[in-house]
Amino acid sequence: MTALDAASQVAPASVASGSAAGPVALDLTALERAERGERLSAGELESLYHLPLPEVAAVAHDLRMQRRDPDVVSFLIDRNINYTNVCNVGCNFCAFYRTKRQPDSYTLDYEQISHKIRELEAVGGTRILLQGGVNPELGLDYYTGMLRHVKAHHPTIQIDAFSPEEVLFMEKTFGLSLDELLDTLIEAGLDGLPGAGGEILEDDVRKKAAPARIRSDDWFRIIDAAQRKGLYTIATMVIGFGETYAQRVSHLLKIRAQQDKALREYGGNGFFGFALWTLQTEHTRLHGKAPGATAHEYLQQLAVARIALDNLHNLQASWPAQGFKVGQAALYYGANDLGSTMLEENVVSAAAGHDRHRATVRELIRISVDAGFKPAIRNSRFEILNYPDVEAFLSRSAENPEGQRGVGA
Ligand code: SF4
Questions:
Q1: What is the pLDDT of residues 82-136, one digit of tens each?
Q2: Candidates 165, 218, 285: which one to mutate for ligand 1, based on the most atoms within 8 Å of Cβ?
């Protein structure tokens, strides 16, 4: 029995789609093609939003089980270090940034960054995300010095640093071509670029949410150069700005096209993963103005992404934005990965309106096991580092509720 057959037993293809105008026969052609592993067009992908979610989810989960180890759910132990909160971009959806005159603005010195990394190393972490605001006070020496300092003092830590927005600022400010800039950063220790700032890569959406935000062409230009140079990258997506289904599909197809190019031309060095989350607007200028997205919309979008991205196989569940319970459910809507523990995260959490923005290893293990999967700790390139001792972690909780010591030992 195929996933579609199984789903159809729950919601047969002849049932009404819920239209107020009365029963409408469902066209499952696109889903049937997806289930056969065929690539869907923009119109076919848009049609998925109008089908019952259980049917779309069943196919998405089936594809996930085919494309990644069906027994395993992976995650990473890392820390997001925001080296400065000073930013002159001023996105309407951001509660993190400050102007330099605000009393709680900051820029970390290298020893403060090292202190945070030592805490990460103590719990077996292997990667930092170094991201900041776009701080016009910082010179190129600050960035290269930071990378050199981290590599010198923490040689086993992978550094994925600087969103395309920050790279664009450096390119415009320091008089270097993009190639020269990336070469300089790589020589100083850069291992990858987080794909932050993707949101919806349609400029009509971006202009409304953040008029000064990096445009989609520049985002792809910078990601393309990074992939060409062998750097790690992931693709990101945020829904809830009030974007249309067509705009969401366009975003996904641009990512799919970039992935095709990278796999073809850059020796397979494309996006290593895809992270989707929902817009968080607490304490931002968009609060009450953007519709946001419900759990149903999030899970639907995740399932559509799994079907659309037939060349990008690691999809993350967003427990930081959706909470642990929806994050766990996402493992049956196309996700095969729980992202990372995020020992520290400040940007999404500043606008989240809840405090669920970090997880212990024990919590991610429990989410995986209870959902029927074997947890695996990976590196940022989605290579499995080890399979944690589930019994030991789950029994350790009373004496060590953080459950993080001894990972990887
Ligand atoms: S999202 Fe990033 S670029 Fe936009 S205001 Fe916040 S820190 Fe600045």
A1: 999 999 999 989 989 999 999 999 999 999 999 999 999 998 899 999 999 999 9
A2: 165
Name the binding residues for (3R)-3-methyl-D-ornithine.
163, 318, 340
Q: At what angle do helices 3-10 and 53-67 cross, to 10 degrees?
A: 160
- 232's CB contacts (< 8 A; 6+ apart) are 158, 160, 191, 192, 193, 272, 380, 381
The 10 Å Cβ neighbour count of residue 242 is 17
The response to whether residue 286 sits with its C-beta less than 6 Å from ligand 1 reads no
- Give the C-alpha distances (Å, rounded to integers) separating 185 from 167, 233, 385: 10, 15, 27
In the chain, domain spans: 3-67, 72-395
Question: Which position has the token pair 């149903």?
Answer: 296
Across the beta sheet with 78-82, the strand order is: 78-82, 127-131, 158-161, 192-193, 232-233
The confidence band for 262, taking pLDDT boundaries of 50, 70 and 90, is: very high
Question: Mutate which of 94, 107, 222 to test ligand 1's pocket (most atoms within 8 Å of Cβ)?
Answer: 94
Which CATH architecture is the domain 72-395 placed in? Alpha-Beta Barrel (3.20)
